[in-house]
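Review form for a predicted model. The reviewer records the input and the model, then writes brief findings.
Reviewer: anonymous (R2)
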Amino acid sequence: MIPRELAAKTERLARQYPVVTITGPRQSGKTTLCRMVFSDKAYVSLEDLDQREFARQDPRGFLNRFPEGAVIDEIQRVPELLSYIQTIVDRKNLEGQFILTGSQQFDLLENITQSLAGRTALVRLLPFSLAEAYAAELKSVSLDQVLWTGFYPRIFDKGLNPTEAMSFYVNTYIERDLRALINIRDLSQFEIFLKLCAGRTGQILNLSSLGNDCGVNHNTVKSWLSVLEASYIVKRLRPFYKNFNKRLIKSPKLYFLDTGLACFLLDIQTAAQLAAHPLRGALFESLVVAEMLKKRFNAVQTDNLFYFRDNVGNEVDLIWDQGGRPIAMEAKSGQTVSQDAFKGLAYFSKLAEDMDSAYLFYGGDESYVRQSVQVTAWRDMAAVHPSPP
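Model under review:
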């Protein structure tokens, strides 16, 4: 069983708050994390139909079975339980009473804000990070293999074929969850939408263009994207704004948070197919964005990731904002670092006088400093921690 970087932080939070809520995509390892860290607690899953009906029909009776608290999995299935949990934790005034998990933050966070404000710590668990997935094999695995495999824990735990696993994942989890949240009348149209989004990973988002290509209107695209983001399937990376006296791009960039899922949707069926694929660079950029987001979430930090681009094309792939001192990051999938790779970083460093540091992640094997930039081999990205946890 692969240890999770978030485990120690989650255990600490349970000593400080009466409730800890763990959100993240389906199959990201939330249940496994809970059973590792809170093995002494009772466990119940609201995916179980009998348990779900019991919780809905008799919430007090359901919770009274757990006088010492419990791990309650998939709490979004019965959100009305949150009000009863609030009553219990207020009465007992003890830390670490309930550990809640949920796969959809769309409605879950709103319900938690209403019922458990000030009573719960909120942590986000994404699939494995690079360091977690390849702790002992990072030196031997290829970049293309990493991009194609993705990071969902079950693939590593059971030695699954990534293409098959992602096919089942899309059919059983994404489509089911999304159909429960929004009215998708034509499932084939939504499948086209997913594939079109995968083809746009790493690109500036144009809602009208995306809608035209899959035959739905602007508002439908916006709704579908919101649910995909709430389910931790995609991320819309916001532009970095500051008083630079420049005309900046205002639209977000779209990223898939798991490159293996994106590869499946792009019909990439083997790692070898990635070598000459036109979206290999975009997939590598997606890997960097996801890896940095995992670093922040695993340190129980807020998102605070952006990108920079002005109206004449000066761009930095990723801005890590750490309280007014931004860290600029570029992603280049090639094994050779050309002079052009530093262009955006150099421009941004002149513009942002308070810039902390700069990284250039690339597909090669050697890390070094060049032009005051930390040129970092993709394998060494696992050890990069730009700000203290």
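Findings: The chain has 16 helices and 14 strands.
Further findings: The longest strand covers residues 315-321.
Recommendation: see findings above.
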